[in-house]
Amino acid sequence: MKEETILKIKKLFELTNNNVCDHCIGRKFSDILSKEWILNELRNMNYPIDSTKILDSKLNQLRGVAIRNKIDNEEYLKDCNKCEICENIFENINKEDILKKIDEKVEFLSLEYDSFLIGTKIPKEVLEKDLWINDEINIESENIKKEINRIIGEELELLTQKEVKFKNPDIVIVVDLRKVFKEIETNSMKFHSLKDNHDLISVRIQINPLFIEGRYLKLVRGIPQTKWPCKKCKGRGCESCNFTGKIYDESVEELIYHDTKIATNCYKSKFHGAGREDIDVKMLGNGRPFVLEIIEPKLRSLNLSNLNEKINQYSKGKAKFLDLKFCSKSRIAEIKVSSPDTFKIYCATVESENEILKDDLKKLQNLSIIKQKTPTRVVHRRANLLRTKNIKDLDTYFIDDHLFKMKIKTDGGLYIKELISGDNDRTKPSISEILNTKCFCKELDVIKVGKY
Questions:
Q1: What does the pLDDT look like over 28-77, one tens digit per residue?
Q2: Is 278 a catalytic site residue?
Q3: How many structural domains compose the chain?
Q4: Which candidate in 135, 176, 278, 423 is catalytic?
Q5: Global pTM value
Q6: Residues of the chain above pLDDT 90, percent
Q7: Which DSSP string do the residues of 161-211 spell out, in sequence order?
Q8: Whether residue 117 is found in the same domain as residue 22
């Protein structure tokens, strides 16, 4: 052991008047004294221990035992009356009671989960004292909460055979110990065991979302992608919306949510699409990518194949959902980011004010680069920008002297209705400008969303 480390250990004992527990001694030097060092010291002490069965939650305590023995000072070898850093919380956590409370909460909520993370709440004064000690001895160490979390987490892992997961766990279990410390302070007690205060411990569970991605087809017009709250009542319900709280009776979001809610017993969901089509536009072909964020799902073991079948049966004739699979939260950003590789293929029925000839449609083959300002109809809710988009392919089908169909492949983000109308010259060039007559989009279908 380095002389510098020894001096810091002695400083720790001085600051705490020799009242510091093995857990807190070990915590302070966990980054300096390795597990191998602990085992060697314990062997030299003839300390009874099986190195193959040491839990991580025991390491700091054993490190503290080894450090206390290593420093040749009888005062340091004494057991502390009450740890001035943690108030002996590590020696007196009623793990059985905490695990029982967690189990009761899980049962009350009827939760399914495979992974979890433990969090704890303790008084900020205890945390501040811990940090002050670090500053005084010029050391960095994990805080008290991390050690408590580890102790509870390992016990829960052993009991439930569920996995502690630090990134994206199914649930986060928060054990609140603040009332215990408050009781100690109120009663001016020198020491008060948690075992006598199990009623003061509370448990809260945060249920993390599930994410399911897939593609959807919208087979009819008049259905929005997501629910539109009533503008007058903002979703509360009024006479204008027939007390439904929404403008349209159904949406793609609500069609998939119906059976998803039953399957997961969730609180609600959020629908994230890779762009969106207008209400009067069909979404056909291979479908539009989306992610459904399921908020606070109490049931997580889903058979997505069966769920997909039920959703499509419920949505029959209105929408169809394809290739449902679990995904991570990061997929939301990935499908929403507009990429230069993204393209869309549309089929539009175009009506002209004046008569046109079949040969007039040949002029449209010259369409290539489009400069388009944010359309008038959406500029109130979207940034007023000038966008440059490319048309990759365009085919026309003459119907009569006022009507033709147009199949167009273009960069994602080009507004097709405004490409046709010109939107008072906010889109240039436009179909209306090239044909020298006012044109408007009578019907529009998206038939493919993809990447080049």
A1: 999 999 989 988 988 888 888 776 677 788 899 999 999 988 886 665 55
A2: yes
A3: 3
A4: 278
A5: 0.85
A6: 68
A7: --EE-SSS-SEEEEEE-HHHHHHHHHTT-S---GGG-GGG-EEEEEEPPEE
A8: yes
